[in-house]
């Protein structure tokens, strides 16, 4: 996958740091965190994203009609930086808003995306959807570890789950094989899908990520555990845009959704 090959080249510093980690014999948790921290210097601002506890399971239908969503803080996706021009960011033509909830079974993502030309050309789950049309991606990793997940939802309610042992292993064929479809996803298109001759209004989507999937290796997840790190990314294809538009929360210093040191804290808010 060319996308991940490019990311792998941009992650050489992470690879070197991980190699150094293995050589110096530090404990795995401390070494992983120090390797990632030393791989790249992120933005000065410390971002956080709050997920509010859900008093009942959220119905995943893509509408975001459950009243619980109204209690979750809204965060706006932000444009990518201008290449080789520090301090400058691209103009974001089509906005996006994200919210998060959680309960003891799932971590929930809800998105509302402006989109003048909704497109999704994938025909099954488990595909590299960023190459096939519009997609919202959730990246999440446990504290003090190198591994992380990349989770997709598309306008036509498709899903993909990727798992990466660490940024220094990006691009390997084993990483590009989608994992079992454990996510619950649904989306609603406000307009028409895959018709470039009209103008659409946007799309909404919901995703439920099983906590059991995230903690299968013994990780701890909950309001009393150390914060996990998270990033929400978006690919937006449209005939009305000058180029494919990428956006994210939190803000990134480079156009690279795999900058693990720049993910923000996920704060689980209890009742």
Descriptors for this entry?
271 residues, alpha+beta, Immunoglobulin-like, 13-stranded mixed beta sheet, 4 helices, 14% helix, disordered N terminus
Indicate the CATH topology: Immunoglobulin-like
Q: Choose one word for the global shape.
A: globular
What can be said about the biggest beta sheet? 13 strands, mixed
Q: What is the total domain count?
A: 1
Integer-rounded radius of gyration: 18 Å
Low-pLDDT segments, ≥5 res: 1-35, 37-43
The separation of the N and C termini measures 43 Å
SSE succession? HHHEEEEEEEEEEHEEE
Mean pLDDT: 86
Q: Helix- and strand-based class?
A: alpha+beta
Q: Identify the CATH class.
A: Mainly Beta
Number of E strands: 13
Task: Provide structural commentary.
There is one protein chain. This protein is of the alpha+beta class and 271 residues long. It has a single domain, classed as Immunoglobulin-like (Sandwich). Helices cover 14% and strands 30% of the residues. Strands 1, 2, 3, 4, 5, 6, 7, 8, 9, 10, 11, 12 and 13 form a 13-stranded mixed β-sheet that branches. β11 (228-236) and β12 (245-249) form a beta hairpin. α2 (12-24) runs antiparallel to α3. The radius of gyration is 18 Å and the shape is globular. Residues 1-35 and 37-43 have low confidence and may be disordered.
Summarize the structure.
By secondary structure, the chain is an alpha+beta fold.
Topology record:
Elements: H1 2-10, H2 12-24, H3 28-39, E1 48-53, E2 75-76, E3 78-79, E4 96-102, E5 106-114, E6 135-141, E7 148-153, E8 159-164, E9 184-190, E10 202-210, H4 211-214, E11 228-236, E12 245-249, E13 264-269
Parallel strand pairs: 1-4, 1-13
Antiparallel strand pairs: 2-4, 3-12, 4-5, 5-10, 6-7, 6-11, 7-8, 9-10, 11-12, 11-13
Helix pairs in contact: 2-3
